[in-house]
Amino acid sequence: MFKTIQTLLGAVLLWAVLLLGAVQAQLEPMRVDPAPVGVDPAGPPRPVAIPAVRPQKPQPAPAPGKGVPVNRDQTRVAVLGYHNFSKTAPVSDMLMRTEEFRKQMEYIRNSDLTVISMQEFLEWRFGARKLPAKCVLITMDDGWRSVYTEAYPILKAYGYPFHLFLYTHYLSGRGDSMSPDMVREMMRHGASIGSHSVSHLYPKDWKAREPQDSPAYTALIDQEFGLSQKRLTAMFGTVNTYCYPGGYVTPAMLERIPGYGYVAAFTVLPGKVTDTEDPFQIHRYMVFGTDPSIFASAMDFRVAESGSAVSLGSTPGTLPPTTPPPPFAVLPRPNSTVPCNFKLIQADLSGVAGVDMQSLHMSVSGFGRVPARVDANAKTISWQVPMRIYMPNISVHVTWKTTNGTSHKAEWTFKVDPYAMEQQ
Fold first, then answer.
1. Please, which of 160, 197, 217, 364 could form a disulfide with 209 given CB 3.0 to 4.6 Å?
2. Model-level pTM?
3. Sign (positive or negative) of CA dihedral 24, 27, 29, 31
4. What contacts 16, CB < 8 A, 6 or more positions away?
5. Domain 330-417 maps to which CATH number in 3.65.10.10, 2.60.40.1220, 3.30.200.20, 3.30.70.1450?
6. Does domain 72-298 have CATH number 3.20.20.370?
């Protein structure tokens, strides 16, 4: 019995020795032997077997415009403006479905676009930073509680920075407004702060204090611009951006705004922002809950071409002097001057033969293709202008095809005078 156990133990020991030798034989090519005596350790290393490595699939270079800085003059920024959100309430210009907002943020994520912070935007605009070619800046106006409850979780999940334009009378935490503590929490997760005045006055309130060089008008500017900046800075730290309520801006405001510590101010006039943008009249796309075409226009970064139905950017150009006038009646008339609150752009093609009315489109500088109404019976195309426009020169492009498949376009330019008598 004892001999049998010895025999078994010997067999096991022999098996273990053989197995260890095999393992060492397999590992031997990977071992780096110490340098023998008389060999310089700093000299060329001894040949060592390198295990086979599976070839890696080459990774594509980052898409131009997403994370890849370009020269400053090649960058364009779409500044988005939002207000209120709800999962269930009826949508309006100022109120968007939460799920629609989520889809828009997802679209940005899946597109060749880079979301930037306000600080990055300002550094780029003033020459201290380069950005990718296609950028998006997200802003929220007023201080609605739904920004905190509905939009903020989405923005936080995507890791997007965003900018809150707050007016101080609506920063109480009561009713539908946000509280300062809500704002501070969002600031810890990507939010920055700008002023939207003290009391969000309407144009009639400003006009009641005119003329613009009167003491009453100056005092109102001091309050709405200056006092709001001081209050917000005391609560949240330095505030140096402003957003004109309703986009209403006057020469007196532009003259005084730098003195309150602001370096940039934003309008409600849509268009891509370039490095030559007036820092106190920055374009912004106000994304209405009722009009998905605004977001689509903001996301369209295609290069403008005269007469084509694509985004025309932020700087509307006048047409060459050789451009023929439209062969039909249009409003506003070519080379005419209109007030900033003009209501209608229209072309009457009733005298043009063979128009395919389904092919009829209108583009307006600063807006790109607009959601114009085509009346097939009257053979007109018209666009109800949704806001005041302060760009001094507006060009309009109408394109269509005739029934034989031929493409046509008509173009004209008119001027906007912000001091002209307003239309009623």
1. 217
2. 0.62
3. negative
4. none
5. 2.60.40.1220
6. yes
Token pair belonging to 101: 């907002």
Same fold, 72-298 and 330-417: no
Check residues 86 and 27 and name the one with the higher pLDDT. 86
Residue extents of the structural domains in the chain: 72-298, 330-417
Is the omega angle on the peptide bond into residue 211 within 30 degrees of 0, that is, cis?
A: yes
CA torsion angle 58 62 64 66 (round to 10): 160
pLDDT tens for 361-405 read 998 876 777 889 999 999 999 999 887 776 778 889 899 998 888
Q: Contact, 82 vs 284, CB < 8 A?
A: no
Per-residue tokens: 52: 């086979």
Kindly report, residue by residue over 321-352, the tens digit of the pLDDT: 777 888 889 999 988 999 888 889 999 998 88
What CA–CA distance (Å, rounded) separates 97 from 86?
5
- DSSP-derived pairing of the beta strands 114-115 and 373-375: unpaired
